[in-house]
Amino acid sequence: MANRAGRTTGTTLVIPLRRGWAVWCRVLFAASRRFAFITAPLRRQSFIHMAHWSIVDDLGGNALGHTCLYFESNFDASMDEYVDVFVQALPWHMRLVWAGGVAYPGLYPSAAYRDWSDDHGNAIQHYYGAYAGATTTEVAAALRVSERLDRFEADAPYLDDEAFAAGYRRLLHEVGPWL
Q1: In this structure, are 84 and 144 located in the same domain?
Q2: Looking at the whole model, is its pTM more than 0.85?
Q3: Rounded CA gap, 71 and 14, in Å?
């Protein structure tokens, strides 16, 4: 289950866990905070704004009756595209977390996994995207262009015409991939 704001999608899943899996998740989550290589492949997925996992026994003071994995994420894609990227690009990372979910169907075929995750979707009551008209990749690119432009602008008053033209050409060449 997902909500959209502009090009951004938000999703929240509540997955009941098999007995003992919460211990594994707590160890994995602690290790991932200490060792960046664990989360590096996830952080390289530039379409993700945020992803967060928690182990919960209740939501809003209401007991769930099962220890659950609470997952929320914001990303620049549809839910189908999001799942497909993870199934194809990060299958072992997916299994390390999700395989302990009750009735986990495996990652293949990915439609079965998508159906399972949809069954555990939690309706989002409110969703806000700070940059609803832009993707995370576009915002990051705009920040890089802005930084380079600020540097050029600071140097420009001290440049003669020839140095200005050369600097401007360098600037365009440098920021071109982000435009």
Answers
A1: no
A2: no
A3: 6
